[in-house]
Amino acid sequence: MSYDLAFWYESGSLDAAAAYQKYDAMTDGESGVTAESPRVADFYRDVQKAYQDLTEDTTEEEADQSPWTSSVYFNGEYVLVNIAWSRKNEVSDTLITMAKSRGLMTYDPQRELVVEA
What we know:
Elements: E1 2-8, H1 16-27, H2 38-50, H3 60-65, E2 73-74, E3 78-84, H4 88-101, E4 105-108, E5 113-115
């Protein structure tokens, strides 16, 4: 089981229903959901530095230490993460703080919650 979050740049405010619509399109792999932003790329690099990603080159020990249940997804527009349920509080709090510092919005689909920068 994973705890999922999405991060992207939004110039205005969104309510939970509008954020869900974008999130739903993102999880379908759509592009053009939101504009690309260097803030998103910077956030993705921050995430990679903070937590080991799951890649083909990851050892079993590194994979066990990673908070992810699948690789972090980044396409220039948004970042999607699937956090191991046992680490959801620690990692989600850290990521939300990192996203706010980059001026990004966070959408938490489990709680239908929008966290604006």
